[in-house]
Specification:
mainly alpha
Length: 262
């Protein structure tokens, strides 16, 4: 698929602008008493309202040296990282799906996953206000997407939510402790709705492996042993993004793996 450099550049700029808005959502959404619209962008420390030239994605952070222009307090690098990541995801979506409804739907999907990743990292929660509409939208999206059929989407959302619910409930019966959170169950259902049931095996496998490795490092650094807790949502989300952009390679690897047992 031939995509012009102008279109890719426009997609990147658009993505960084959306990433700037996602930073506001990530900061304010976990607080039920805060609006994601009002007040306008301001320094969380000194509360000064930011001028337009202090809100230019990525560039403003670099020009200001990563500090507030008013109080000189350091600005979290999360802001340019989220903007850059969202811009790159916009480019990846256009490069893979062209200028289409499928590209638009998957960009919204990517933006939702970026938001989930950072909120879960900070607060260890996956907001229902993102995942539940995401499940419905993912299924509705399958009727216009050429990535999955509506049947694959329906099976994906039912199996995605059902598998993790069964694992979580079984763990509770055995240990009388919560294993996977309800947010992870809804997130996997959302991933299944957008990506189809075929994605679930890879997502579960890849997220489990990477999550286990990260958990071992966390246990070593936090020194809490079995009481160590890390959010699992980011591993699910990253695995879903990987499958979205590398589906042919993932399917090829699974085919090679299955051939070994024939």
């Amino acid at each position: 698929m031939q995509i012009s450099l102008f279109l890719l550049g426009a997609a990147f700029l658009f993505g960084t602008i959306i990433g700037s808005f996602l930073n506001v959502v990530i900061l304010r959404l976990p607080d039920p008493g805060t609006s994601i619209v009002f007040p306008s962008s301001h320094c969380p420390k000194c509360k000064n309202t930011l001028s337009w030239y202090e809100n230019i994605p990525i560039l403003s952070y670099l020009v200001l040296g990563g500090k507030c222009r008013h109080c000189k307090v350091s600005i979290s690098p999360q802001y340019p990282i989220v903007e850059l990541l969202t811009g790159l995801l916009a480019v990846a979506v256009i490069a893979n799906f062209g200028l289409s409804l499928t590209a638009l739907g998957f960009f919204l999907f990517c933006a939702a996953l970026v938001t989930i990743i950072w909120i879960d990292l900070h607060h260890q929660i996956i907001p229902d206000v993102i995942s539940l509409p995401g499940i419905i939208f993912g299924f509705a999206f399958s009727f216009v997407s050429f990535f999955v059929t509506w049947q694959e989407s329906l099976i994906g959302l039912l199996a995605g939510g059902g598998i993790f619910y069964a694992v979580s409930y079984s763990y509770y019966l055995l240990r009388r402790q919560e294993g996977l959170g309800g947010g992870d169950i809804k997130l996997l259902a959302m991933l299944g709705a957008f990506l189809g049931w075929q994605s679930l095996l890879f997502i579960i496998f890849a997220s489990s492996v990477t999550g286990t490795v990260a958990g071992l490092f966390a246990m070593r650094s936090q020194k809490k042993g079995g009481a160590t807790r890390i959010p699992f949502g980011p591993f699910l989300a990253v695995s879903g993004l990987f499958y979205l952009f590398f589906r042919p390679q993932v399917q090829q690897l699974f085919s090679l793996y299955l051939d070994l047992f024939r």
